[in-house]
Amino acid sequence: MRNLNKEEQYIVRKLVSARKKIQIHEMCLATILDESLDSMAIEWSENQVSVFAKKSINAQEQYMHLCDIIALFLYLEMEGMILVHTNPDLLQEKALYNHNMYKKEGDKYVSLDESGLSVEIFGKPYVFNYSVPSQHSTTIYSKLSTLLDKYVCALIHPTQELVDYVNNGFKTKEDLQFRCTKKLAIVGIIVAILIGIAGIWVNMYKC
């Protein structure tokens, strides 16, 4: 396993925590992206990906951030640290956005106005007033769309090996064994030096 940066560790820790608490919705890539990205929405087709963001957010930077997260899950899957359950039938639209915060209108996403009229229907709140924030988008022509098709509707299940990795402070069994061997080697060197010094003192004393 390579060393994970702080954000990657945060994502992995959230996955492991969700497994322990049996919070299935927290183990979905859609939930992870919603929490990790500052973009309003992501849309994709066969050969392109579009990121929608507010004017104050760099949409291209959000695209790079998206790539980093996808790359993390590709790596963890190749290392056998996660099991990915994919159900393409759940993919109703090739767009990812928080339906509680935004709504698509034409080629833009509108932000639900929390101060608007709220009505409860069958126990679920609905907000009818909304506003259009200043926004922009960036479109990248890439095959990342293929990976989005795979992961967006996927359940990311952390294996026991990943759980142990997190519990051991993001160290694999091999890392821990190496550290232990290194400590024993250092202790052995120190002991050898002390024995050598003791031998010198003994010889000096005999003289």
What does this protein look like?
- The chain is α+β, with helices and mostly antiparallel strands and 207 residues long.
- It has two domains: 6-171, no CATH class; 172-207.
- The chain has six helices and eleven strands.
- The strands form four sheets. Strands 4-1-2-10 form a four-stranded antiparallel β-sheet, covered by helices on one side. It has a three-stranded antiparallel β-sheet with strand order 5-6-9, with no helix packed on it.
- The N and C termini lie far apart (56 Å).
- Mean pLDDT is 78; it is low at 114-122 and 126-132.
Which radius of gyration do the C-alpha atoms yield?
26 Å
Number of helices: 6
Our estimate of the beta-strand percent is 15-25%
Major sheet attributes: 4 strands, antiparallel
The coarse silhouette is elongated
> Which spans have pLDDT < 50 for at least 5 consecutive residues?
114-122, 126-132
Helix and strand element order: HHEEHEEEEEEEEHEHH
Average per-residue pLDDT, rounded, comes to 78
Number of strands: 11
